[in-house]
Design brief:
alpha+beta, three-stranded antiparallel β-sheet, 1 helix, 3 strands, elongated, binds zinc ion
Length: 64
C-alpha cells in the first residue's frame, strides 16, 4: 500500500507513523524526520495512512 505525500517545506520526504494507543485504537499521522512537522493524528480502529496523508497534503494542522 502506497500513499502519496507532498514533500515537506524543509525539503525532506515525510513518513507515515502509526502508534497503537489502545486495544482497539491506532493513531496514524504523517511526520517529517527533518523538522518534526506533523499532520493531525487520526485515531481509528485500524491504521489509516490515506486519511493521514490527505491531512498532510492539505497542509491542515501542521505545526512548525
Ligand atoms: Zn520538514
Amino acid at each position: 500500500m502506497t500513499v502519496k505525500l507532498n514533500r515537506c517545506r524543509c525539503g525532506r520526504m515525510p513518513g507515515v507513523r502509526t502508534c497503537r494507543v489502545a486495544e482497539d485504537a491506532i493513531e496514524t499521522w504523517v511526520e517529517c524526520a527533518g523538522c518534526r512537522a506533523r499532520s493531525p493524528k487520526i485515531e481509528d480502529a485500524y491504521a489509516d495512512p490515506e486519511s493521514a496523508a490527505a491531512q498532510w497534503n492539505s497542509g491542515k494542522g501542521t505545526k512548525w
